[in-house]
Amino acid sequence: MASNGVKKEIGIIGLGKMGGNIARRLIEKGWKVSGYDPAEEVMEQLAGEGMTVAGSPLELVDALSTPRLIWVMVPAGKPVDEVLFGPTGIVTKLAGRDTIVDGGNSYYKDSIARSEKLEKLSIRFIDVGCSGGPFSILKSGACLMIGGSEEAFKEDEELFRDLSLKDGYTFFPGAGAGHFVKMIHNGIEYGMMQAIGEGFAILKKSPYLFSLTKVADMYNHGSIIESRLVGWMRSAFEEYGEDLDAISGSVGHSGEGEWTAKTAKELDVPAKIIEESFKFRVASAENPSYIGKLVSALRGQFGGHAIKK
């Protein structure tokens, strides 16, 4: 129990890079955490760190006292629906005033649809966009963009306070609103990373023998473009060398950049930079480049994504 009487108990389904570190941070903050993941070695490791292991999502539901609070951290799309509504979906065991939190990068329209289905069962739904990367969650806390049930948010606000850095969470009214804000965040991120990649590629091909590491360091001491991304660029150079020989020139991508460009068209808002940066990533599968290496290196630094050749 928290000092204000709030029950600090949660179940987490999906214990990958993000989900696992969410579990670790909550355990550090005094939460009783039950978790499930199909990877047994992941559960064994977290069990050694204080998490209660469940043999299945349904067993996880049974392990929690009511009203239940369950954080779903699985890939967007069908996996979320399978966990919630599939043949062995957890909604069959949930009851009114239970709360489901979708903390993955789900498409906001999918979150609206899920919220409507759950509302008919009197199950509350919160959608959360998480930013900062899996490593920052443990170090300083995440940045959380929260939508869905305002009632559930207010009741469970201590969860978001414990997971975030100071003043690092905000509630936005409406089902899917948190995922919408995160979708746009990631679209902006695509454009910022592309600009950094293009700029450092120009520096490398210039007639001057620049140390790109020193340039990145200088940019991050009071310049207008000072940022965590520029800091991560310097870290990538230090880790892999400025030629980035070990890094793939093909850039991975998830749905958010594409969804942002699609949503911009639906709302008749020009979004050329975001759209072009998404197209660059798609094309990089067939046309790897040094710019691609730079963007890939950034993805590895903040997200732990697979980026090596």
TrEMBL record:
Belongs to the 6-phosphogluconate dehydrogenase family. Residues 178-306 form the 6-phosphogluconate dehydrogenase C-terminal domain. Transmembrane segments: none annotated. GO terms for molecular function: NADP binding; phosphogluconate dehydrogenase (decarboxylating) activity. It comes from the Bacteria. NCBIfam families: gnd_rel, PRK09599.1. SUPFAM superfamilies: 6-phosphogluconate dehydrogenase C-terminal domain-like, NAD(P)-binding Rossmann-fold domains. Keywords: Gluconate utilization, Oxidoreductase. It holds the Pfam family NAD_binding_2. GO terms for biological process: D-gluconate metabolic process; pentose-phosphate shunt. This is 6-phosphogluconate dehydrogenase (Decarboxylating).
